[in-house]
Amino acid sequence: MIGAHWQLDAKGKLTVETATLTFKDSDGRPAVTVDFVARYATERPRNAPTVVDMIVTELSSKDDTPQMTMRVDGEPLPIIGRLRSRRSVVATMPFEDFVRLTNAERIVEQAFDTELEFGRGQMAMLRSTAAKWLGR
């Protein structure tokens, strides 16, 4: 699965753009996401970002409905839990390294004891994203 979004920080005159790749488990459920995040000046002329953050997040099927219970004076109190955070790691790479990986034939990343092999569609999205961030 592939996705993208961006946000504008008008005060800081920055655009923050994210390309998201989703890797599924053997049952077809999302298991890991890899976000590539770049920040660049919103005003023209626009330069390519200097660095790209890569955020790898482990998802769990238990994330959908976290279980919480509470008893008050021995009586159950109905509460609904919401997921607040997940397990994530972040690495920052120079933009040139990001461009290099988008030109690769094959990428296999190891994170959370899982091997993530980037598919053709994911590679195409990364190449398109790199070209966009380069201003091509």
Shape: flat
Instruction: Extract low-pLDDT stretches.
Output: none
The helix/strand order is EEEEEEEHEEH
Q: What do the pLDDT scores average to? A: 82
List the helices and strands and how they pair.
Blueprint: E1 2-9, E2 14-24, E3 30-41, E4 51-58, E5 71-72, E6 75-76, E7 87-94, H1 95-102, E8 108-111, E9 114-117, H2 120-134
Antiparallel strand pairs: 1-2, 2-3, 3-4, 4-7, 5-6, 8-9
Keywords, separated by commas or semicolons:
136 residues; alpha+beta; 5-stranded antiparallel beta sheet; two-stranded antiparallel ribbon; 2 helices; 9 strands; 17% helix; 43% strand
Folded structure, characterized:
This protein is α+β, with helices and mostly antiparallel strands and 136 residues long. It has one domain (2-134). The protein has helices at 95-102, 120-134, and strands at residues 2-9, 14-24, 30-41, 51-58, 71-72, 75-76, 87-94, 108-111, 114-117. Strand 5 and strand 6 (75-76) form a beta hairpin. The model has no long low-confidence stretch (mean pLDDT 82).
Summary?
By secondary structure, the chain is α+β, with helices and mostly antiparallel strands.
